[in-house]
Amino acid sequence: MANNLLDQVFSRCRNENRAALVGYLTAGDPNISDSTLLLHHLAIHADIIEIGMPFSDPMADGAVIQAASERALASGCTLADVFSLTQSVRRQHPDVGIVLMGYANTPYSIGFESFAAQAADAGANGVLLVDIPPEECGICREAFQQHQLKQIFLLSPTSSEDRIQRVIEVASGFIYYVALTGVTGAELGETSVIKARVEILRQRTSIPICVGFGIKTVEKAHEIACFSDGVVIGSAFVSIVTASDTKLFDASDPLLKIACNMRSAMKRPKK
User: Fold this and answer.
1) Half-sphere exposure of 112 (CA within 13 A, CB side)
2) C-alpha to C-alpha distance for 263 and 19, rounded to whole angstroms
3) Which of 85, 55, 48, 76 is nearest to 230 (CA)?
4) What is the distance between the alpha carbons of residues 215 and 12, in angstroms, rounded to a whole number?
5) Residues near 232 by Cβ (< 8 Å), separated by ≥ 6?
6) Catalytic residues, which ones?
7) Which helix (H) or strand (E) holds 153?
8) Which CATH number fits domain 5-265: 1.10.10.60, 3.20.20.70, 1.20.1250.20, 3.90.180.10?
9) Euclidean distance between the first and final Cα of the chain, in Å?
10) In terms of Cα–Cα distance, which of 102, 86, 70, 1 is closest to 36?
11) Which residues are CB-neighbours of 68 under 8 A, at least 6 positions away?
12) Which of 227, 237, 226 lies closest to 259, judged by CA?
């Protein structure tokens, strides 16, 4: 798998005058079988898929994604299953960018070298570990680089100048800009404020900037798409999955519908 697939995705989206749709789902939610189908359905419309590695204490996530991790763990989802799901998506969707997202404990449990090797073999293009800031990325940076995995970092409205500069120096793939001061699924603030901050970042780096956290509607997604390189949709997709609805998903799957609508919202007005 080409190590610059994420670069290719953003280039393709720029050529089509749109932002990239970055869709998140938790691996193994509500179970491995249905998770496989959901990820494949999301891959039909998403440019990049963030596959969440279920963790018992997802402290940056709100109630919706926390519940998804709990369902996935209860169903027996392991890191090996995450790699298997990643490989399944990669085989059927060779042009979709795949980022593994989660917390440091998960790869640390098997060692960063082993994790990076297995992630790359499964077809992942990047990794975002929420609780490894740029100051501490030395513990995994070499392993990720060796296996050609982009290392993605978060910036937020409260990021200091020093933190911003550090992220710019070490980030690859894209920078994930957290649009609010809160957990996933919280209420989004004024779009104009987010736009101003993204424009400031864009003056300092050529790395693509994706905006996420709190983007729940097609209208808000479109507003963000008009000035960002990508829009991350998480809780709005995850909330479709419930513990009680574990039947096989077909063409009427509501995830397909909302993902299709979100994809359409990525188109920017003609200049």
Assistant:
1) 19
2) 9
3) 48
4) 23
5) 22, 23, 24, 50, 176, 210, 211, 212, 213, 215
6) 50, 61
7) strand 150-155
8) 3.20.20.70
9) 35
10) 86
11) 25, 26, 29, 52, 54, 238, 241
12) 237
pLDDT in tens, 56-97: 987 777 888 999 999 999 999 999 999 999 999 999 999 999
Residue ranges of the chain with pLDDT lower than 70?
1-3, 181-189, 243-252, 271
Q: Is 61 exposed, middle or buried (0-12, 13-18, 19+ CB in 10 A)?
A: buried
- Decide if 212 contacts 232 (C-beta within 8 A): yes
Q: Which helix (H) or strand (E) holds 175?
A: strand 175-178
**Residue 185 CB coordination number (10 Å):** 21
**Contact partners, residue 150, CB within 8 Å, separation at least 6:** 6, 99, 125, 126, 127, 144, 172, 173, 174
Cβ(11)–Cβ(5) below 8 Å: no
Per DSSP, the three-state class of 38 is: helix
Where do we find the tokens 């369902």? 71
CB 185 within 8 A of CB 63: yes
Residue 220 near residue 188 (C-beta atoms within 8 A): yes
In one-letter notation, the amino acid at residue 223 is E
How many whole angstroms separate alpha carbon 67 and alpha carbon 84? 22
Tokens at 10, concatenated: 């953003």
Tell me how far the alpha carbon of residue 223 is from its chain's centroid.
Answer: 19
Q: In this predicted structure, what is the pLDDT of residue 244?
A: 45
